[in-house]
Amino acid sequence: MPGSHPDVFGWTGAIDTIPVLQGKIQEFTADSNTLLRQYFGGKGWPFYNIPSSITDSKADRKIPSGANIFVEGPLRDARSSYNNDVYKLSSGGTEPVKETIASEGNQSNLENNQVRLSQNEPQSKIDFVKVGYIATANPPPENENPIPQGTTVTAVNELVVTLSKPLVANIVGSSITFTRPVDDYAGDAMIKLWYSWAQYYLTHWKDRTPSAPTTQTAITGSIEENLATLSFKNEHRELVPGMAVKGPGLDDAMTEVGIHQGNAVILKIASDAKSVTLSQVANKPSKDAIFTIHPPQSLLWTPTTQEDAGHPLIEFAFPNAPDCRPGSPNRKNAICRHDPYAFSQQVYLIMASINQISLKNNDNVCKFMQDVIGANMGFIFTQAAKDSDDGKMVSAMIRDMIKSVLRGVSDFTKYPDVVNNQGTHTSWYPDPSEPHGN
Description:
Elements: H1 18-29, H2 51-55, H3 68-71, E1 98-102, E2 114-116, H4 123-128, E3 134-138, E4 153-157, E5 160-163, E6 175-179, H5 185-204, E7 217-223, E8 229-231, E9 244-246, E10 264-269, E11 275-278, E12 286-294, H6 340-354, H7 365-373, H8 383-387, H9 389-406
Antiparallel strand pairs: 1-6, 2-5, 3-6, 4-5, 7-12, 8-11, 9-10, 9-12, 10-11
Helix pairs in contact: 5-6, 6-9
């Protein structure tokens, strides 16, 4: 009877065979590949650390989406379900995260910041230890911990390991756990790139509106419940997309779970400058109320210290950027599809909108970036707001901004894709192997 002994089947919706697909994935994930070149510093796109992918470079590989690189990467200490001692993604390496090694009983003739490892340990464990790795002691319960917190390896000479800090107690009887420092080349590079573009807008937001206020400004406006349009009786041509808006119906706006973090921002300004579309819908009506407008604000999880993923940010410079200012004849030409100002504005508006998500759904940079690239706008609103017409409209606006940025243009609805006779995209999807800007 048909179907009584089903086999394992799967459909990809593609006309090519699995070997063809895997060949492309192998090329995409290989180090020093020509598809990405220096996009990740010469490394390939990460793949999942499935045992066969680690032991056999020619085995089939499974790769994560752009959004999942963050939450399934080493920045979140995500481990493989096949081997909990290995990171889930190859962006954290394919070797173990840590090794625990016994100390030798004879610790004579050493400096006070040195330790001799047990000669009975496998050589593979000894070879694991590298300069820069974090050292943590595991003393017997009755003994004092001999290795201070924050100690790293500064040198390795056969069985003798030199530490960055002196021992504070006898190491004999203790094992030592050596842990690789977290290094996520993919997550770090993408966090750096997105925040650098946002920072570019925070630096240049006023360039095309010299009259824009640089301090908070009070404006009288009206807004209806579950609507995102803030209306004014007078023109306000000093406003700029990305400005934060505070006021009744917005200050206590709730998201899917909990109160918002970042403020609502201006996504769009009407042509008559008498209304703006916000990134949030009001939770109550307000007529002729006072709203406070703020210059574009810094984003949550912005990398500011050496320990932050993505630090330091890239300081973009575009000396040969096209003139795409209002009134320029280039405004309607395809040359402006890569206008740095407009592109950075889109990036900032996306991130500032996702910035509103409550702490429960947005408590670290990896979750934030997953929501940005994964277009998880639903977290911004309550269910009622999400179901409202304006909630759907705002979600669609942010979605289209994300689609534009991921296609490498400021607005994909203004600048359609062009594919030449060789099948190469000449408008969307800039080649990641080619550097741009300075």
